[in-house]
UniProtKB/TrEMBL annotation:
<dbReference type="InterPro" id="IPR050128">
    <property type="entry name" value="Sulfate_adenylyltrnsfr_sub2"/>
</dbReference>
<dbReference type="InterPro" id="IPR014729">
    <property type="entry name" value="Rossmann-like_a/b/a_fold"/>
</dbReference>
<feature type="domain" description="Phosphoadenosine phosphosulphate reductase">
    <location>
        <begin position="137"/>
        <end position="236"/>
    </location>
</feature>
<dbReference type="InterPro" id="IPR002500">
    <property type="entry name" value="PAPS_reduct_dom"/>
</dbReference>
<dbReference type="Pfam" id="PF01507">
    <property type="entry name" value="PAPS_reduct"/>
</dbReference>
<dbReference type="GO" id="GO:0003824">
    <property type="term" value="F:catalytic activity"/>
</dbReference>
<feature type="domain" description="Phosphoadenosine phosphosulphate reductase">
    <location>
        <begin position="17"/>
        <end position="78"/>
    </location>
</feature>
<protein>
    <submittedName>
        <fullName>Phosphoadenosine phosphosulfate reductase family protein</fullName>
    </submittedName>
</protein>
Length: 329
């Protein structure tokens, strides 16, 4: 005899709508849309903390929780289980691969101190490198993995279908457009992950103006970093351009100092004894001299071509409000 069990839909259980919150404008607009369409009882919000976010973004996530009156679940990767096997690999395998004992010992001193508790830094130590444009492991390991674990746990504990709402827009970049455009006039606003979990991208075609209009309509302030001229409001990204690096160096010098410290630490666990936050193509022995964080800051202060310092850049002071989106007007 085959026993069948009623599905959640048969029991009258509606799907849960989970919005991945980043503190940015797009995810906030997505959360506001989900709440309007499905109500607080059917909406959940989750924030993946990589340990390298801007302090104002942390503050904004807390503000948003109060502003929309819905709990935002914070999730964080813990790399303890990967840390000690990596330590053992460095100790036991590196010498057999011709790595100098001096290099092995230096790396082991870092591992013996144990995980730092900062997910981004711990991941870079384990990888012995920083992410890059071609190896963007930070997004997968620090955002996608913990949020996916949360979605699976939510489905398993409630028995309800879970719709994962993602605040992405094809206007943001050519790469995103190519990935999510689909064919013809279609956009890939829906995909099925499996196991009762679905991906939904409701604002794929929204222009940025509509995103801020959604904030205004609900009386929700955008992340204050947008009023500092930022286009991205999370951590300083390894793909950041000249203007963004300059903005961080002028307003958030402590973040630059922290990255300098992290370059020291990750260099200690690197076989080549050199690791830079931003790419530094060329001779590895001079990578830190040419492409360390402070060298990138100096480059960001130069005019086009990267050879002459811009007098206007040197003299200019950060204004109280400077927005790429006209938020100061």
């Amino acid at each position: 005899m085959i026993t069948t069990f009623p599905s959640p839909e048969d029991l009258g259980l509606s799907p849960l709508h989970v919005v991945s919150v980043s503190g940015g404008k797009d995810s906030t607009a997505t959360l506001l849309l989900a709440l309007e369409l499905h109500g607080q009882e059917n909406v959940r919000a989750v924030f993946a903390d990589n340990g390298n976010e801007h302090e104002l973004t942390y503050d904004y996530v807390r503000y948003l929780e109060a502003a929309v009156d819905i709990p935002i679940k914070w999730v964080r990767r813990d790399f303890t289980e990967l840390w000690w096997p990596r330590r053992d690999y460095v100790r036991d395998v590196w010498p057999t691969k011709g790595v100098a004992q001096e290099v092995v010992d230096r790396a082991l001193r870092v591992f013996e101190r144990g995980p730092t508790g900062i997910p981004f830094l711990d991941l870079c130590i384990i990888k012995a490198r920083f992410p890059s444009r071609m190896a963007q492991f930070c997004t997968h390991e620090l955002k996608i993995v913990p949020i996916t674990e949360y979605l699976v746990d939510l489905h398993d504990s409630t028995g309800r279908q879970v719709w994962s709402w993602q605040g992405v827009r094809i206007e943001e970049s050519a790469a995103r457009r190519n990935k999510l455009q689909g064919t013809g006039a279609c956009v890939l606003s829906y995909s099925e992950m499996g196991g009762g979990i679905h991906h939904y991208r409701p604002i794929l075609r929204w222009p940025w103006q509509a995103v801020f209009e959604a904030h205004d309509a609900k009386g929700v302030q955008p992340n204050p970093l947008y009023r500092q001229g930022r286009q991205r409001v999370g951590c300083l990204c390894v793909n950041s351009g000249k203007d963004e690096i300059l903005a961080w160096s002028r307003r958030d010098i402590t973040h630059i100092e922290r990255i300098d410290e992290w370059e020291d630490i990750v260099s200690e666990v690197s076989k080549r004894s050199n690791a830079t936050f931003f790419p530094a193509p060329g001779d590895n022995d001079t990578a830190r001299e040419r492409g360390g964080i402070w060298q990138k800051v100096e480059w960001a202060r130069t005019s086009r071509g990267g050879r002459q310092f811009s007098l206007l850049t040197d003299l200019a002071e950060p204004t109280a409000c400077s927005s790429e989106y006209g938020l100061c007007e």
